Automatic annotation (TrEMBL):
It comes from Ramlibacter tataouinensis (strain ATCC BAA-407 / DSM 14655 / LMG 21543 / TTB310). Pfam families: Abhydrolase_1. The keyword Ion transport does not apply. Residues 24-255 form the AB hydrolase-1 domain. The keyword Oxidoreductase applies. One of its GO terms (molecular function) is peroxidase activity. Belongs to the AB hydrolase superfamily. Bacterial non-heme haloperoxidase / perhydrolase family. Keywords: Oxidoreductase, Peroxidase. This is Candidate non-heme chloroperoxidase (Chloride peroxidase).
Amino acid sequence: MPRLQTTGPHATELYYVDQGQGQPVVLIHGWPLSHRMWESQITALTEAGYRCIAYDRRGFGESGRPVGGYDYDTFAADLDALMTQLDLQGAVLAGFSMGGGEVARYIGRHGTRRVAKAMLLGAVPPYLLKAADNPQGVDRSVFDGMLAGVKQDRIGFLAGFFPGFYNLEPGDARGQDLLAFSKWIAWAASPLATQQCIVAFGGTDFRDDLKKFDVPTCIVHGDSDRIVPVEVSGQRAQQMIRGSRLELLRGAPHGFAATHAQELNAKMLAFLKS
């Protein structure tokens, strides 16, 4: 199985899948999932002539479970290790939700020498946390509540989290298989990683990182996202990234990579070919 070794204080192994030929597209998953969330996108992109590389963030999926390193500087260093060891050139970085933070921090810290384009998909930048200089953000109590819920009963918390991820109402018979699949992925993650990533995506400021974007950037967001509302993320990111464009998926929830897969795939392919 393809794996690479990172370095640093909390070195670990990262698992990744590498399929297809052509321009590389690096897919970075959201919390609390793994590379498995990209099933539809990997199929569509590889069939269209692209090379898809999707890796599991440290602590998730089949990657290692270190006792630390769950911060965006380390996540960006992990992505840099992948880009460097695979010697990717002219790559497209596509980050979903929390994964959009990796794209932002990677460009902010490591530049775009290996990057041709970027995609932020339902992504958390520029800054989710409400603060004096970020009044549009989300109150800290929301993230504190998530962290407390995961610490107290991770399995129970996830059972209540995913219906809102996909905008499924209680008792809704639709999407039950998708809920089961998502919980199965999330259950396998490190409890510590699941906790600490809430701290990371809930409190990291990417505004300076977005100023360093100098490649074509496409932002895709669901206009019915209950988890990462477009008003505090996608719309503001578009305003901060020079020359970027915002594509809204009408009626789409946060988890649109699954619920609106064909629409997302079409937008990704159109951007890749542009």
